[in-house]
Write a structure and sequence with these properties.
44% helix, Rossmann fold, binds pyridoxal-5'-phosphate, single chain, 434 residues, alpha/beta
Amino acid sequence: MNYRSTRGAGPVGLDEALLRGLAPDGGLFVPAALPRFDETAFAGLDNIVDIGVRFLTPFAAGSRLEPALDAICRDAFSFPIPLRDLPPTQAQLGVLELFHGPTAAFKDVGARFLAACMQRLDRDRDDPRPLTILVATSGDTGGAVAAAFHGRPGFRVVVLYPDGQVSPRQAHQLGCWGGNVLTLAVDGPFDACQQLVKQAFAHARISQEHRLCSANSINIGRLLPQAVYYAAASLWHLRRHARPASFIIPTGNLGNALACVLARECGLPIAEIVLATNANRTIVDYLGSGEYAARPSVQTLASAMDVGDPSNMERLRHLFPAFATLSDKVSGFSVTDEEIREQIRLDATRRGETWCPHTATAARVHDRLPAAQAAQPWVLVATAHPAKFHEIVEPLVGGPVPVPPALAELLERPAKAERIPADLDALAAQLAAH
Ligand SMILES: *Cc1c(COP(=O)(O)O)cnc(C)c1O
C-alpha cells in the first residue's frame, strides 16, 4: 500500500510515512487507495488482535512491518477494549470502552501501535544511538507516548508540558516513568512547549545529534490502529444484534472519528457516524455552512477536545472533496459545559454510569437525537476513564470514582520533572545531559 500527502506529495510506503509523521509538503499522509472488505473477510475472527491483523494486512502490504503485523497487534492491543451493552431500554445502546490502557484514555492504542512499529523499523539500522521521541503535550498525549515507549530499547522519550497548567493527575502521569523517559516542566504555556519542539526539529545539529523523531497524533501509525477497534466493534455488534451500529464519537482533532470513517469506507458494517464536540464549534459550524473557519480554542470541561482548528479535518476533506458528500457522511453536535455537567449528574442517577467529561458529550448528543433516529442501535465511544478527571466528576456524582488498577499503579509511583525556561538552549542542555 502506498500513502500520499493530502497536498499531493508522494507516493511513499508505510514505513516512510510512519517515520516521517508529517508529509514533506506539510500535508497529512493518507492511503493512496482503500481496501474493500466483503462480509466473509472476517468470518471466524472474533478477538481484536485477529481482526486487526486481517484489517491492517492490506495497509501494510510491501512494508517491512508486514511480516511482523501479528506481533505488532499483540503488542499494541494488550489491554481489553470491550463493547458493553447498557441495560435495554426502548432501544439498543452500547458503550465502546477505549480507556483500559496504561494512561486510561484512547490515545494509548495509537501510541502503543506506533511505538511497536517504530521499534521494528529502527531495528535494521546500524546507528547505536537511541532515537529521541520529542513530544509537547497539554496533558493526555504525552502520558500515552511516554507509556508506549517506556522501557523500549533503542528509544528515549522527552516530554514537555506547561508547568502548572495540567491537572495534578496528568502531571503525575507525565513524570512517573523514569528510565528512558525525561519529563520537562516548561515555564510557559502549551504553545511555548510546541514552539520549542518545532525549533528543536528545525535545528539541524540538535535534530541529528539526538536523532529526534515525532510521535505526533497526525501520524498515520496512530490512525490505523484506531480503525481496528471500530472494525472489531462493528463486527461484534452486528453478530450480537443483527443490525449495524451507529457511533457517537467525542471529537477534538478528529483523529478518533476519522478512524471510524475509514473503517466504514473499507466496507465495515457501520451505519451513522456522529461527532460530539464541546463548545469548540469549528466542525459543527462547518457541517452547517460548508464554510471552514478555524478559530482560537476555548477552554471547556472536556479539555482534551479544546481544539479550534482540528488537524484531521484536512484528511476528512481529502477523503470527500465535495461538501455535499462530506456532510452526508458525518453529522456533528456541540455540547456546552453546563450540558456536560448535567449529563454526568443525570446518567449517574438514571443509568448508574459515570462518564468522563468527554464521554458525557457523546451521551448528551444521544439524548438529543430525534425519536426515529434514537430508535436505531447506537454505540457511545468512551474516550477516557472518569477517574482521570476526578476533580470534575466526583462533585457531580456525589462520591468517589474508583481508580482503575493501571492508573492506580502509576499514581503510586513517585513523579519528577525538570523545570526549564522556555528556550532552546535550556532544552538542548537537557537533551545533552540525560
Ligand atoms: C484526545 C482526546 C479526545 C479527542 O480525540 P481526537 O482524536 O482529537 O478527536 C477525546 N477524549 C479524550 C479523553 C482525549 O484524550
